[in-house]
Specification:
It is a single chain. The protein is an alpha+beta fold and 604 residues long. It has 3 domains: 190 residues, Heat Shock Protein 90 (2-Layer Sandwich); 127 residues, 2-Layer Sandwich (Ribosomal Protein S5, domain 2); 266 residues, 2-Layer Sandwich (formyl-coa transferase, domain 3), CATH 3.30.1540. The chain has 19 helices and 25 strands. The strands form 6 sheets. Strands 1, 2, 3, 4, 5, 6, 7, 8 and 9 form a 9-stranded mixed sheet that branches. Strand 3 and strand 4 form a beta hairpin. The chain starts with 7 loop residues before the first helix and ends with a helix.
Length: 604
């Protein structure tokens, strides 16, 4: 078979298949060109999900007639002034977007430099370039793409519905808008969920306002500032509190030098940072930008420019994980403000059912079986909070005045325990409801982690070693991990087929149900699987086992707490990292503002 050179237009269409696989990709290329041209305002209009019309208008630098002539030629670009492929400081660089689009659609360009008396226009249809002509044009560039893929009908078959394609355009544009808050972005078109976001001033305040528009108005008050540097890499942005999570990863926004990416390394780092504080089936909400020397990252590894390759991936991953973990730990007991709103919504639903036979139980003062905690502000160290051996009262009401000092604390003064499960505390501005088991589970877990990091987890030998019968597979799994478990304070050894012998247990878990503990640890090891080569996988596996252990020494729902125990729990939560959520990522408390409660009952 004879080798022949392909027709240039066919070459362009092949390139279009790599770069422009759907309308959103065409919009992305055109908008990135506008950003690189220094635009302060970018407007996008689409019709038919983008296949009928894409219009991008910007107020950037514009082009001269000579630039316009070259812009639609293959491998022509203004973004590599010195030809160095390893120092790309712009968003676009391939030099294929305009000729690729022009080969599979009708492309019309009108452009004008700000100092030019008139603009220039050019039309490309099916790869055939027209003549550059003078046109009336505002400063900047206006590009229209109509009948996308009309000359490659096979590509049309792979497109989704107009709604799906429009939503893909919207999502792509939102990601660019988040990465460049100093530019106005506007989108209109059917099914696109149009928006018009003004340009924001550079800096944290402007970025947070843009994130509030893109990620939801509740995001700013539930966001943590992220700022970290390491060996020439700078991490910045905002990350949502662990309890501010979503069911998909659509709320995870990442960029490298202002280039939005969906990079596997970075996504893995984010998951690793949140693994200890968020449910495994939920995802955080955040925006992070990694700034670095362009020579430290290769952006030319993916046709759609959605992935990058770092020269030192371990360094970048470590920066992301440590930066996020530091911010999450510094947040301490903070939980999302939306928890209180959800609680109030639940109350409203119950109140609205008042006429259908349901009733709201009212507290009975001085009912049998209740005791009122004395006003006090006990510290964790004074209260002996970890001693739960003694019997305690069920505090169902609190008639004594709370300590003023405790009222000023973030989690307030304990006023009651209801259903032997929830602690009700009073603050200056409202009410806090704490899930005692979830909160104490996190406290025990954080103690164990801190102990492991400092000196190793203290162990207590058992007077009589305990035999635990297991499935043979689980027993083998435990024995294989015996070294890891010893570092966590649990010393086991084989005891015949399908059994292990427990000789020592963590001191903090002394007196617990070792049979159930060992079985749950076996389940945790099975869930985590084998240790992979991914950085941090061993630490995550050990943390997962520790979290399982912590659950066994936590004060349970149904456990009556003494007044001083309740106050001590609140005080310890206030100084413990990540205490706003339990080991499974659920909130440990909700806060109800007094003003919201008053509105609930029509007092405002």
């Amino acid at each position: 078979m004879t080798v022949r050179r392909l027709d240039p237009i066919l070459v362009d269409r092949i390139a279009a298949g790599e770069v422009i696989e759907r309308p959103a990709a065409a919009v992305k290329e055109l908008v990135e060109n506008a950003i690189d041209a220094g635009a302060g305002s970018i407007s996008v209009t689409i019709a038919g999900g983008g296949r009928e019309l894409i219009r991008v208008v910007d107020d950037g630098a514009g082009m001269t007639p000579e630039d316009l002539e070259l812009a639609v030629e293959r491998h022509a670009t203004s973004k590599l002034p010195d030809g160095d492929l390893f120092a790309i400081g712009t968003l676009g660089f391939r030099g294929e977007a305009l000729p690729s689009i022009g080969s599979v659609a009708r492309l019309s360009i009108a452009t004008r430099r700000r100092d030019a008396p008139q603009g220039s226009g050019l039309v490309v249809e099916a790869g055939e370039k027209g003549v550059v002509r003078p046109v009336a044009a505002a400063p900047g560039t206006r590009i229209e793409v109509s009948d996308l893929f009309i000359f490659t009908p096979a590509r049309l078959k792979f497109l989704k519905s107009d709604r799906a394609e429009a939503q893909a355009v919207s999502e792509m544009l939102r990601r660019l808008a988040i990465a460049h808050p100093d530019i106005r972005f506007a989108l209109e078109g059917e099914h696109a969920g149009g928006f018009d976001w003004p340009a924001e001033p550079l800096g944290e305040e402007g970025l947070l306002r843009r994130l509030g528009r893109a990620l939801g108005r509740d995001f700013p008050e539930n966001a943590l500032r992220i700022e970290a540097e390491r060996e020439g890499f700078r991490l910045s942005g905002f990350a949502g509190l662990p309890t501010f999570h979503r069911g998909t990863s659509a709320g995870v926004h990442l960029s490298v030098n202002g280039r939005p990416v969906r990079d596997k390394l970075l996504l893995s780092a984010v998951r690793g940072a949140y693994a200890d504080v968020i449910p495994s089936d939920r995802h955080p909400v955040l925006f992070l930008d990694i700034g670095c020397d362009p020579r430290s990252v290769d952006v030319n590894v993916h046709p759609a420019k959605s992935e990058v390759r770092f020269r030192d991936p371990a360094l970048v991953r470590g920066l992301v994980v440590s930066g996020l973990k530091a911010a999450l730990a510094a947040a301490g007991h903070r939980a999302t403000s939306t928890g209180g709103a959800r609680t109030l919504d639940a109350f409203r639903a119950v109140l609205s059912m008042g006429g259908s036979g349901s009733s709201i139980p009212r507290p009975v003062p001085e009912a049998p079986g209740w005791s009122a905690p004395a006003p006090m502000a006990a510290s964790a160290s004074q209260s002996g909070f970890s001693d739960f051996a003694a019997p305690s009262a069920d505090a169902r009401a609190h008639l004594a005045e709370p300590s003023p000092d405790a009222l000023d604390r973030p989690l307030g003064a304990a006023r009651a325990q209801v259903h032997e499960t929830y602690i009700v505390a009073q603050t200056r501005e409202g009410v806090v409801i704490v899930d005692q088991h979830a909160a104490h589970e996190r406290l025990v877990y954080e103690r164990l982690k801190a102990e492991r990091a400092r000196t190793g987890i203290a162990r207590q030998p058992l007077l009589l070693p305990e035999v635990v019968e297991l499935d043979p597979v689980d027993a083998d799994r435990l024995n294989a991990a015996a070294g890891e478990l010893e570092g966590l304070g649990l010393v086991i050894e084989p005891f015949g087929p399908g059994a292990v012998l427990v000789r020592e247990a963590p001191s903090q878990l002394a007196g617990g149900n070792l049979q159930k503990l060992v079985r749950d640890v076996a389940d945790a090891l099975a869930e985590q699987g084998q240790i992979s080569s991914v950085p941090g996988s061993l630490e995550r596996r050990l943390d997962h086992v520790l979290a399982t252990m912590a659950c066994h020494n936590s004060v349970r729902a149904g456990r009556r707490l003494r007044p001083e125990e309740m106050d001590a729990l609140l005080r310890e939560m206030e100084v413990t990292p990540n205490s706003g959520q339990c080991n499974h990522g659920r909130p440990t408390y909700v806060e109800l503002k007094l003003s919201d409660i008053e509105r609930l009952f029509g007092r405002r």
